[in-house]
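Follow-up to my post from last week.
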Amino acid sequence: MRAVLTVVGKDTVGILAKVSSICAEYNANVMDVTQTVMQDLFAMTMLIDINKLKIGFSEFSDKLKNAGSDMGLQIHVMHEDIFNSMHRI
Amino acid sequence: MLNSSDILETIKMIQEENLDIRTITMGISLIDCIDSDINKACDKVYDKICRKAEKLVSTGEDIEKEYGIPIINKRISVTPIAIVSAAAKGSPVLFAKALQKAAETTGVNFIGGYSALVQKGFSAGDKELIDSIPEALAVTSNVCSSVNIGSTKAGINMDAVRLMGSIIKQSAEKTADNYCFGAAKLVVFCNAPEDNPFMAGAFHGVGEYDCEINVGVSGPGVVRAAVAKHPDANISEIADVIKKTAFKITRMGQLVGTQASKRLGVPFGIVDLSLAPTPAIGDSVAHILEEIGLESCGTHGTTAALALLNDAVKKGGVMASSHVGGLSGAFIPVSEDAGMINAVENGSLSLEKLEAMTAVCSVGLDMIVVPGDTDVDTIAAIIADEAAIGMVNSKTTAVRIIPAVGKKVGETLEFGGLFGSGPVMPVNKFSSSKFINRGGRIPAPLQSLKN
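User reply:
Got it. Predicted complex:
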């Protein structure tokens, strides 16, 4: 299963490093990353493979969410299919 | 990889515009629970519901977490209880209690189907069930009831209409100390759909699968936000914007429905393409109409704007789903929609205008609070008017009206939660009693020579 991880918030140093270290800690493989900074707003989307995740998906999602709120960022992890079904015919 | 702006659009819809799956409803047939011993029948009903819906709530929660989309309600609809209770001697209220117990065991929000279908006449069990509705709704908290009193093919059963006027009033009176909530769990239909996932009118029709999953989507906030991005577009362009948005919303419903059906091992029935508002700020159908260009919902032009909205939602949604059914359209409940409440309070929206609006959209007079001293024949006549609109236009219409015991026009009845609050609306003060008390049936209308 692949999931889409999004990070939105104010740009600061070390966002990518922090998020990818959490992914590495729980064995989520980062497959693709895109990021943009518009004025001060940082927006990153990451495609991750979570087949070999060490913990449950919802626990993983909560860990990222909490790490995000510590840095003033909104982090969401959602199954890839929701975007595929919504935006592709 | 997916386009980042598409990803962010989806997240914005969920986070800021209240996009959600309003309900996953499991339809369960109780035909095989019929027994002449009422206690045995009730046990069978309880056992079958608990067996089939054991994992409904947990599966819904799993999908919610995995896909990051809120699923607000997990519900159950069952075969109209009048069919099941007909063979058994005893009070049908026992079935309502069995349904309540099953709702508590499975953890669902509501269970619908304390229902009777009497569009032409009363068959065995129907009358007893309808008479027991006020008590059944008073002694249970999660059981919903509906009665179909008319259809395009059968006409309108005016004896049932008269009876329902009184049943609605009794349901409100029996729950007077609980915001008259009994009446909020009771819907009177014309052309009731058999696969509707929305409460309080959900029941599981006899032509359906033994067990199936139906999904109701929502998203008035998303549609409003999409329309707001096009302040200078003409109406053709607005219709296209709504269609595209409805497509996206419905795709999510289709995905959740197929996933739930796969995980629970039951067939996927339909997606109900409805714009179901909630009292939350920004989740209002009235606000979409206002965004299209009306100063306040209910003013001249409201019916036209609603017709456009309703049609565009269906056109966009139909392509997004393999099977569409249920009520499918924009809901215009008063108490559950912040914009509607506001429109009633500022005087722009009246009962008469709401009735006109129901001719072009889904459902009917929904969650409308009227004075507690409203005559039962007047309530029946409101039902008859609404049923006539449904019958003649070959569409579903419904009445869910709450006589607020002890309250007068200008006061407000507070329900709380998803049900919101309803300003008490005035009704016409002239009598309809003679018309209602004639009884009999309104014959089915012509299906040609339409003008």
